[in-house]
Amino acid sequence: MSRQEEDTKTEISPMMTEQGREELYLYSLRKMAEERADSDRASLTGLYGPKSFFFKANECMQQHEKLQYALIRMDIYRFKTVNEFCGRQQGDKLLQYIADCIREYESDMSVVGHLRADIFTICLPFKNKKQLSDIAVALHEKICAYPLFCKALPAFGICISKNHMDISLMCDYADMALQKIKGKAYAIYEFYDDKMRKEMMREKRIENNVAMALRDEEFKVYIQPKVDMRSGEIIGGEALIRWHSVKEGIIYPDEFIPVLEKSGYIVDVDAYVWEKVFAAIHIWKTGGITPVPISVNVSRSHVYQKSFAGVLEKLAQQYDVEPYYVPLEVTESMFTEYVDKLYKNITRLQSAGFRFSMDDFGAGYSSLNMLKDEPVDEVKIDRFFLKDIKKEKSQIVIRNVIHMIQELQLDMIVEGIETKEQAELLMNYGSYKAQGYYYYKPMPMAEFEQLLIKQQKGL
Questions:
Q1: Which residues share a beta bridge with 443?
Q2: With contact defined as beta carbons under 8 Å apart, do 168 and 55 qualify?
Q3: In this structure, are residues 210 and 265 in contact, taking their beta carbons and an 8 Å threshold?
């Protein structure tokens, strides 16, 4: 057929059928989309930008629907530091180098893209997972070998397409896998799987139910007693949170606390626990029960809350409770990450009568300078020090830690005591306050109250 005959055939005229008009219309839309896609390219690298990459990748998978496809997403850990320490020019050169490495995987059946900043993608067919992991390892080696003053640490998330999955969804899933290993020098790639999706969906359900759970008081405050090991007397307690969900059943803290911290709901839940503790101590005082200090946890999210100190001061005033009865437990890692903001709040609250306890001492961030410099009233020695307590080296460490805290004239308590042997050894070293399953497990607040009543009646 001649060009003139072809033009005549496709020319819109009264004689063209409805089917012909529709086909021509769809053809025109596709051509317009392709033209827009070709024009959407990253100015620095020339690779497809996000709109064009998604369009081209979806089209590519449709054209080769009999092939199995996967998406590899790459990100550089703390890429901003490369720009800061090496200069933006060097950062741009690194991105161009990465683009050249990624471009090697572009073909008629695969598409590569530069979505933004240091995020690159490859959509390609594959035969087995090893082929995909080999690509990630090869790219990792090339990028790490790039001569740069700052070390570039790439990570790769991989999502395998199932049931003609949309490319944007694959990209999100690959990012989810990537985030699990980003910043870990020993991990290069991670595959997205159904387990990860179930975890994500559960996290989302937990997050969506928090507000209603607070309203309906599904969160319950438990107390784990603190004791004097010499007499077994209860000298205090720690407020802990449990979630009795109507929809999910019992949800344990290791499941929901990380979700609360990510979403910011930890601030609301902490404040909920604080108020319950202040209210309980007020009831004990007015009901003739001599109160004991009940410590509450302060999450790192509170450091950024301007009202943090004010909330605690207001609760103490509202419930007529001396701040001494509500010690504040702050994890030792917070003293290394949020120094200025934390110190300001600590100083204010200590002036108001609150006491601070450094929680989890020895859990991984310990520094002798912390004991010397931090404005804390108590050190809570982590169960980590009780590990392998039968070994001589472990005993040397815990003995000297105890003596050092004593010489610094700080209060101390050891958590995680589970055996009589641990308790006796600690008492021999001069440590007498303890918290752990050997004495008591966490219990509902009403049950703790009954223990106090029995103790004070000498029962």
A1: 223
A2: no
A3: yes
Summarize pLDDT for 383-431 with one digit per residue, the tens. 888 888 888 888 998 899 899 999 989 999 999 999 999 999 999 999 9
Distances (CA, A) of 342 to 302, 308, 382: 9, 10, 21
Q: CA nearest 445: which of 209, 275, 268, 206?
A: 275
Contact criterion met (CB below 8 Å) for 121 and 71: yes
pLDDT, residue 402, reads 92
Cα–chain center distance at 220: 23
Q: Greatest CA separation found in the chain?
A: 109
Compute the distance between CA of residue 375 and CA of residue 335 in angstroms, rounded to an integer: 10
The pLDDT, as a whole number, for residue 18 is 58
Measured distance CA(118)–CA(146) in Å, rounded? 15
* 8 Å CB contact between 321 and 282: yes
The residue whose two tokens read 């009264």 is 14
Neighbours of 1 (CB within 10 A): 7
With DSSP H G I counted as helix, E B as strand and the rest as coil, what are the percentages for the chain, rounded to 5?
A: 50, 20, 30
Enumerate residue ranges in the chain where pLDDT < 50: 2-14, 25-27, 29
Strand, helix or coil for residue 224: strand
Specify the pLDDT at position 8: 46
Q: In this predicted structure, what is the pLDDT of residue 12?
A: 46
202: number of CA atoms within 13 Å, CB side?
Answer: 14
Task: Note whether 349 and 323 are within 8 A (CB).
Answer: yes
User: What was the pLDDT predicted at 36?
Assistant: 59
Report whether 57 contacts 123 (CB < 8 A).
yes
* Contact between residue 345 and residue 309 where contact means Cβ atoms under 8 Å apart: yes
- Full-prediction pTM beyond 0.85? no
Burial class from Cβ neighbours inside 10 Å (0-12, 13-18, 19+) for residue 9 reads: exposed
The neighbouring-strand residues paired with 48 are 41, 113
Beta bridge partners of 434: 227, 414
Contact 360, 298 (CB under 8 A): no
Q: How far is CA 145 from CA 24, 85, 148, in A?
A: 51, 18, 9
Angstrom distances, CA of residue 170 to CA of 38, 52, 98, 165: 22, 15, 21, 7
Q: What is the pLDDT of residue 7?
A: 47
Where does residue 377 rank: exposed (0-12), middle (13-18), buried (19+ CB within 10 A)?
middle
Q: What pLDDT, on a 0 to 100 scale, did the predictor assign at position 23?
A: 54
